[in-house]
Specification:
The structure holds 2 protein chains of 2 kinds.
Chain A (H helix, E strand, L loop, with lengths): L2 E5 L2 E4 L5 E8 L5 E7 L5 E9 L2 E4 L6 E6 L2 E6 L8 E8 L9 E2 L3 E5 L1
Parallel strand pairs in A: 2-11
Antiparallel strand pairs in A: 1-3, 3-8, 4-5, 4-9, 5-6, 7-8, 9-10, 9-11
Chain B lengths: L3 E2 L4 E5 L4 E7 L6 E7 L6 E7 L4 E4 L2 E6 L4 E6 L8 E8 L6 E3 L3 E6 L1
Parallel strand pairs in B: 2-11
Antiparallel strand pairs in B: 1-3, 3-8, 4-5, 4-9, 6-7, 7-8, 9-10, 9-11
Classes of the chains: A mainly beta, B mainly beta.
């Protein structure tokens, strides 16, 4: 069966510090991978998605970047965090066939920027 | 431009009664719809989905209805249980785009 891992679970960082959140998927090959952010009391905002190694699509221009160095690894980064980067970050995966299919989420990372 | 809308931010229902959560969309190209349940500080959990070629899909206590002409879908939970208390998100997808568009969520509280 497929599982998705995210770490760390919680993170408190000062403004201006760098960020690296990691997501890995097990039990499937060539998944589509996604990063979402949920701000307090808000819905899920799609940040990045990837349909293959090295392929990144950005949905919202902002202070963040994403990379996919391996098939089942997706990394969310920032060089300098802003207060507005605080939120709950979710990684997700789906099948890569392009057919309508279900998307599955990881447990999330709570990021607080002070 | 919010393509998927959940206009009720919250809903309270008595235990044992029916919970009806609603979702509206604007993009007629969506061909797959999903409902997720989310507890605080956890990732969303997939509940049920429906293809645009159907108008109803049922899984245990959960039924999703799709009205394509009205661009409206709803999730029915019968009977509602206290453990159903969570935030529910609807999402829509267009084949080949790889992107899922989420609504803003409805917080359901089931009262014992």
């Amino acid at each position: 069966s497929q599982t998705i891992h995210q770490w760390p679970a919680t993170l408190v960082q000062p403004v201006g510090s760098p960020l690296s959140l990691e997501c890995t998927v097990e039990g499937t090959s060539n998944p589509n991978l996604y990063w979402y952010r949920q701000a307090a009391g808000r819905g899920l905002q799609l940040l990045f998605y990837s349909v293959g190694i090295g392929q990144i699509s950005s949905e919202v221009p902002q202070n963040l970047s994403a990379s996919r160095p391996q098939d089942r690894q997706f990394i969310l980064s920032s060089k300098k965090l802003l207060l507005s980067d605080s939120g709950f970050y979710l990684c997700a995966w789906s099948l890569t066939s392009g057919r309508s299919d279900t998307q599955y989420f990881g447990p999330g990372t709570r990021l607080t920027v002070l | 431009d919010q393509q998927v809308k959940q206009n009720s931010p919250s809903l309270s229902v008595q235990e044992g009664r029916i919970s009806i959560l609603n979702c509206d969309y604007t993009n007629s190209m969506f061909d797959y719809f999903l409902w997720y349940k989310k507890y605080p500080a956890e990732g969303p959990t997939f509940l049920i989905s429906i293809s645009s070629i159907k108008d109803k899909n049922e899984d245990g206590r959960f039924t999703v209805f799709l009205n394509k002409s009205a661009k409206h879908l709803s999730l029915h939970i019968v009977p509602s249980q206290p453990g159903d208390s969570a935030v529910y998100f609807c999402a829509a997808y267009t084949s080949g785009t790889y992107k899922y568009i989420f609504g803003t969520g409805t917080r359901l509280k089931v009262l014992a």
